[in-house]
Design a protein that fits this description.
The protein is α/β, with parallel strands linked by helices. The chain folds into two domains: 43-258, Alpha-Beta Barrel (TIM Barrel), CATH 3.20.20; 264-383, Lyase, Ornithine Decarboxylase, Chain A, domain 1, CATH 2.40.37.20. The protein is 32% helix and 20% strand. The chain has helices at 3-13, 42-59, 73-82, 92-98, 114-124, 136-149, 171-182, 205-224, 237-240, 262-267, 298-301, 339-343, 361-365; strands at 37-41, 62-63, 87-89, 104-107, 128-133, 153-158, 187-193, 231-234, 251-252, 277-288, 291-294, 324-328, 333-336, 353-356, 370-374, 379-383. Pyridoxal-5'-phosphate (PLP) binds at residues 66, 108, 195, 236-238, 253-257.
Length: 391
């Protein structure tokens, strides 16, 4: 690639100058807005979706967003309209919900077990479904159920590229599973998937080379055996917009990018201006001049620590950058303020409302029945359609 092309790509991806800034003023929030609640800036979410889709378009990658972050039909439709080729889910229940707006769904999870089979097969009668698996045992189970129901299920073989969760790291085992799938009457081998959760922003070339090699060796061997690998699916939010550094990927599945959170900010993936979702909470007690208790506890913010700074507390107060959410009970969030805030009388009073940016938005969303879209002026409630669907 020549230097001029690089500049051109960067110019295309530099939306910042064109992006307006969301007005998060608390005066814009009606006094009777329930708290704790999750409020999503329509504008920032739309910008995040567009930025990722533009990146994929420019780099020739297909985007199949992971919907576990938002669990929302509104958000899924936004992603599909922007140009996503399909949607990713973790669970069959989520796939059932997302099938209302998408005909091509990838369950990036070993969706096995008797309790899942009948629902998976029913789904496959209506939409194109693929599943990510890493064993012959899983393939056998899905093949038997699919044969019985007379449906076809797509399969992506899950390769461990270094995150060491699910996935096969031994090339010969990956080939055994892929060959088995390819030989089955009711399974279609679509390709391979991986989750590069261990690769963080600023990862060096060596990490990216190793990521690419762990896939390319397996793909080459499969192709030599006459087994075609159409989809090579990777991508997390931290790696998403660097996916071109792994030249074998042709599809990516970031999820968190639509809303972003404190994890992504502190990992250096995005800025606070790209965080679309905030928690609105009310101060319900002020036991000390420098301490308040809000109505958002672990049942709102989750107990997840920050991935980059585990001791930094359970969220971030954008209007009080030096404050710390020090402890959570289920319904209480305890916040300590700095001496500067305390001495200057800035600490909120009982009844005041505050914004919080959670460490990990995906878990928080799943704790709410609804979220509120904020268009800069007014709020509208939407359901978290796939909330709690863990099967
Ligand atoms: C299999 C799989 N794919 C994609 C993603 C999306 O990654 P992120 O949350 O970084 O956007 C996840 C996240 O957990 C995942 O587990």
């Amino acid at each position: 690639m020549v230097f001029g092309q690089v500049l051109n790509l960067n110019a295309n991806l530099n939306h910042k100058a064109r992006e307006r800034t969301m007005d998060w003023s608390l005066q814009n929030i009606p006094a009777d807005q329930p708290t704790p609640s999750i409020i999503v800036s329509t504008e920032i979410a739309e910008q995040n979706v567009k930025r990722m889709q533009d990146y994929c378009n420019i780099r020739g990658l297909k985007l199949r967003p992971h919907t576990k972050t938002h669990k929302s039909l509104w958000a899924a439709q936004l992603q599909m309209k922007a140009g996503a080729v399909g949607l990713t889910v973790a669970k069959v229940g989520e796939a059932e919900v997302m099938s209302q707006v998408c005909r091509d769904i990838f369950i990036a999870y070993p969706a096995i077990g008797q309790h899942r089979m009948s629902r998976l097969m029913a789904l496959a009668k209506n939409v194109d479904v693929s599943v990510g698996i890493d064993s012959v045992a899983a393939a056998e189970q899905i093949q038997s159920a699919a044969e019985l129901e007379g449906v076809k299920i797509g399969v992506l073989v899950d390769i461990d590229v270094g995150f060491h969760r699910t996935g096969i790291h031994d090339a010969s085992k990956a080939i055994e599973v892929a060959k088995y799938v390819a030989s089955q009457s009711h399974l279609t081998l679509r390709g391979v998937m991986c989750f590069p959760g261990h690769i963080l922003p600023n990862a060096d070339d060596q990490a990216w080379e190793s990521y690419e090699r762990s896939l390319s060796d397996i793909i080459r061997t499969l192709q030599q055996k006459g087994i075609s690998v159409d989809i090579v699916s990777g991508g997390s939010t931290p790696t998403a917009m660097e996916s071109h550094r792994n030249r074998v990927l042709n599809e990516i599945r970031p999820g968190t990018y639509i809303y972003n959170d404190l994890n992504e900010v502190r990992l250096g993936v995005c800025g606070f201006e790209h965080v679309a979702a905030r928690v609105l909470a009310t101060v319900v007690s002020k036991p000390e001049p420098n301490k308040v208790v809000v109505d958002a506890g672990s049942k709102t913010l989750s107990s997840d620590r920050n991935a980059a700074l585990p001791d930094s507390g359970f969220g971030y107060l954008p209007d009080y950058p030096d404050a710390k959410v020090v402890r959570l009970s289920e319904e209480h969030g305890e916040i300590l303020f700095s001496d500067i805030d305390t001495n200057s009388g800035r600490v909120p009073e009982v009844g005041d409302r505050i914004w919080l940016i959670p460490n990990h938005i995906c878990v928080c969303i799943n704790l709410q029945n609804q979220f509120y879209l904020h268009d800069g002026h007014s709020l509208s409630a939407l359901p978290v359609d796939a909330r709690g669907l863990l099967v």
